[in-house]
Design brief:
With about 110 residues, this protein is an alpha+beta fold. The chain has helices at about 5-10, 60-75; strands at about 20, 25-30, 35-45, 80-85, 100-105. Strand 2 (about 25-30) and strand 3 (about 35-45) form a beta hairpin. The termini are far apart. The protein binds adenosine monophosphate and zinc ion (ZN).
């Protein structure tokens, strides 16, 4: 997707603070962190959101979560962490390439 911000970040056409990369997954620090650790974990394949997941493309989700477990350990989030994904404008999504927010380094008390 030529006009997708996260595809451009994955392709390194736009710089990011990458923390993890493999064949399927790219992870980088959020530009506007909402917690001491705020990392975006994205599949390299352009999938718009959770709403577009199918039997054919959903394997990348487990790849993302395997990466999340590794990154959380590397970041020292042994007290716990939170993973969020927003789907659609009504769900608060602003970048329409599937991504998981990995948030940690503080205690979350709300939902
Ligand atoms: P969402 O609102 O769930 O779609 O999340 C999009 C996230 O992307 C927000 O938390 C933004 O702060 C983050 N973001 C937008 N542009 C960049 C960028 N160039 N580098 C890193 N994070 C970004
Ligand atoms: Zn994309």
């Amino acid at each position: 997707m030529s006009d997708c911000l996260f595809c451009k970040i994955i392709a390194k056409e736009i710089p990011s603070k990458c923390v993890y990369e493999d064949d399927n997954v790219f992870a980088f620090r959020d530009i506007s962190p909402q917690a001491p650790v705020h990392i975006l974990v994205v599949p390299k394949e352009h999938i718009i959101s959770v709403a577009e997941l199918t039997t054919e493309n959903s394997l990348v989700v487990s790849k993302c979560f395997e990466a999340i477990a590794m990154i959380a350990e590397n970041e020292g989030l042994n007290q716990g962490f939170r993973v969020i994904t927003n789907s659609g404008a009504g769900g608060g999504q602003t970048v329409f390439h599937l991504h998981f927010h990995l948030l940690g380094g503080k205690v979350f008390t709300d939902l």
